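Retro notes (design track)

What went well: tokenization of the new backbones is finally stable.
What didn't: we kept losing track of which sequence belonged to which structure.
Fix going forward: every design gets posted as structure first, then sequence, in one message. First example under the new rule, 208 residues:
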């Protein structure tokens, strides 16, 4: 396996020592994306929050220091979930936060479990975009907001490892998948147009 394909695989599913290093790199590289996502979430203490592809739980830790909401993180990597638990043991111990391994296309949560959902730089690795959108909408409360934050395809092309295992979506695909699932959608470009937050809102009446 070449270096770039190894890096890409670790971004998709961090494991072992390499996965820990990749998680640290992600936290530094993606901080502007974290900040914009947090701004758009506009959390209240009454919110229930799901982080899809939570990595080592860095963003959830940022949120938990600022808000008294309840937080859940999911990730496909068991090793990285354990790392997230260790990083946030203060919050897992008091029941404010929990973590588990799940696939976004088949979530185990009951309907209308979360008021705020977000994912940062993970949609490239989803197995089924349309099914995942339906699942996210199902577990969201009426008027809930889901924020999907990612780099543009042009920005991704600047990283050599993104040639391996990264699915590239045109903006219209991400908008259409959300609308087909029953969301209203708006796109919020930032970082000098290098990244976009897609903001998906579930209608109050729950009708698709």
């Amino acid at each position: 396996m070449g270096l770039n394909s190894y890096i890409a695989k670790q971004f998709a599913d961090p494991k072992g020592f390499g996965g820990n290093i990749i998680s640290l790199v992600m936290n530094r590289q993606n901080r502007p994306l974290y900040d914009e996502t947090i701004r758009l979430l506009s959390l209240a203490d009454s919110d229930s929050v799901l982080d899809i592809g939570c990595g080592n739980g860095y963003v959830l830790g940022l949120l938990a220091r600022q808000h008294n909401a309840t937080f859940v993180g999911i990730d496909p990597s068991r090793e990285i979930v354990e790392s997230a638990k260790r990083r946030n043991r203060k919050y897992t111990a008091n029941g404010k936060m929990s973590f588990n391994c799940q696939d976004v296309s088949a979530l185990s949560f009951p309907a209308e479990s979360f008021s705020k959902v977000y994912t940062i730089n993970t949609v490239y690795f989803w197995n089924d975009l349309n099914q995942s959108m339906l699942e996210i909408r199902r577990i969201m409360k009426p008027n809930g907001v889901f924020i999907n934050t990612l780099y543009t395809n042009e920005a991704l092309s600047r990283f050599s490892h993104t040639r391996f295992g990264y699915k590239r979506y045109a903006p219209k695909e991400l908008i259409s998948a959300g609308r087909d699932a029953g969301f209203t959608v708006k796109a919020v470009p930032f970082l000098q147009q290098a990244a976009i937050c897609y903001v998906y809102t579930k209608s109050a009446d729950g009708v698709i």
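Added context from the reviewer: The chain has one domain: 3-202.
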